[in-house]
Amino acid sequence: MNRKTFLTISSLIALGVGLFALCAPALLLQSKGVDVNAGTTIWVREVGVMLIAVGITVFMVRNHVDSPTLKAVLLGNVVVQLGLLVIEPLAYSAGIITKLAGIAPNTMIHVLLAFGFCYFASKIRL
Question: DSSP code of 101?
Fold first, then answer.
């Protein structure tokens, strides 16, 4: 897979999840077995907005040539994916998230996206 295709797919994932979190936070929380309340709803909507911003940024740089800025965007996304990768499994082990089926797909996606962003960042030679 080339970088443009990877960035297009990853941007669509971020936009889709972000829109879902923003527009249907209760459904997203219920899918993970998390109590729905005002605080969790606001938090999920905030994360949704941030994911939409990430998706737009990644989509807009998908055609860029190698540059320090593109490398920074890719490495920033590695940090996002690795950071998100550990949060849900820790919450599951603490009993905060109660449905394994609600986190298993996300965990795999974060691993794959982190690997992809890292791979394409490492290919940029400045």
Answer: G
